[in-house]
Amino acid sequence: MFVIGALSAVLAIVIGALIIIRAGIYNVAASKPHTKFTEWLTHSTMIASVKLHARGVEAPTRATAAQVLSGYCDYETHCVACHGAAGVARQQWVNGMTPDPPYLLDAPKKWTPAELFWIAKHGIKMTAMPAWRDELDDGAVWNVVAYLEATQKLPPQTYLEWRRKGVCAPGR
Hints:
The chain is mainly alpha-helical. Helices cover 54% and strands 0% of the residues.
């Protein structure tokens, strides 16, 4: 009897979910924030997925100064518009994204290097975070991770100084 009741409850939940989905009841507009439940569900799913899929990723042992600088240049080209940097705000158009792209100043405190690599390489569905695997090779992605790791030890004004000096300009 319990099994029949449990199966009936599951079937009712599935049918209710299908009705909500097919009727378009859930508002998918980016101008309306997620419900607390949806935010929790998607964020928790993302964290668990990244941790699982990054398990087999082997991080390089140590980055050179040249790799950190190269990572800065790729960050400047591909990441700063959405994620900002020390002393650099995100672009205004990013404010319309749901969820908001996180600032990455403390990302190395929240994620391991392997997890940061996996996120940058594969992206995150339904967040506007693209998979950079077709744009950047693994070495370049690791350089971005090295840059993010290095920001924990660099003075906050470093990003703006490097930008002012044009360290990423061709021929430098």
